[in-house]
Write a structure and sequence with these properties.
This protein is mainly β. The chain has a domain at 4-95: Roll (SH3 type barrels), CATH 2.30.30.240. The chain has helices at 15-18, 85-89, 100-110, 129-132, and strands at residues 4-7, 10-14, 22-24, 30-39, 45-50, 61-63, 78-80, 126-128, 136-138, 143-153, 158-168, 171-177, 182-186, 191-194, 208-211. β10 and β11 (158-168) form a beta hairpin.
Length: 214
């Protein structure tokens, strides 16, 4: 499900839609979105992980989501940022802020005593959408499927909904649930535990849907 919802000037992106989406800087230089980092307590989007505008560079850049300009009412497979090339070059590298999956890897290999690169402290709440996507969904007593997607509200830059996927008898079914339904995200077990069963199959939704603002 690659979903883009337009509600007046408000746009909601699915993570699948954002992955690989090109972005345009104010002075015309382009790049691509490669990941999204969020806080698993507040579900706030902290960073867009992007390829640099300079295609010869191998380092990825952390872009603040608030620099994304409003999309208006047109479906454009591209994001427009308020940043210039010079401002973009001053943003932090992705290697300076690490999500849980990378933190554990460094912790295990370096035994750094609670600190990682550059003296940064371990942050157990910073998550990578790319990594968590595909984690097993566990209800109170049984498996509920796998985590398939995130719906991101750009008015607040928070995860508004999550989408699960389950397969049975050769059919694929999807269902949605609110972030509040998540009890814990486990990196080691690659699992998202839910507070209650959420296996609800909604009607099939189009890849792009338009909703008129009231």
């Amino acid at each position: 499900m690659e979903l883009l919802e337009l509600m007046g000037s408000q746009v909601k992106y699915s993570f699948k839609y954002l992955m690989g989406t090109r972005f345009q800087l104010a002075d015309g230089v382009a790049g691509q979105v490669r990941d999204v980092y969020f806080d698993d307590r507040t579900w706030e989007i902290r960073h867009l992980v992007t390829d640099p505008a300079d295609r010869y560079s191998v380092s990825q850049i952390l872009v603040p989501p608030t620099s994304v300009l409003p999309q208006g009412t047109f479906v454009i497979p591209e994001l427009f940022l308020s940043l210039t090339k010079e401002q973009f070059a001053q943003l932090p590298l992705a290697s300076t802020v690490r999500p849980v999956c990378q933190q554990y890897s460094l912790w295990n290999t370096r035994g750094s005593g609670g600190r990682i690169d550059g003296g940064e402290r371990f942050d157990p709440h910073l998550r990578s959408c790319k990594t968590v996507q595909g984690y097993e969904l566990m209800g109170p007593s049984e498996k509920e499927g796998v985590l398939d997607d995130f719906l991101i509200d750009t008015a607040t830059w928070t995860v508004q909904q999550l989408y699960g996927r389950t397969e049975s008898a050769g059919s694929v079914h999807t269902f949605s649930f609110a972030p509040e339904a998540v009890s814990v995200i486990g990196w080691g077990a690659r699992m998202v535990r839910l507070k209650a069963p959420r296996r609800v199959v909604p009607p099939v939704r189009p890849a792009v849907s338009f909703v008129q603002a009231a």
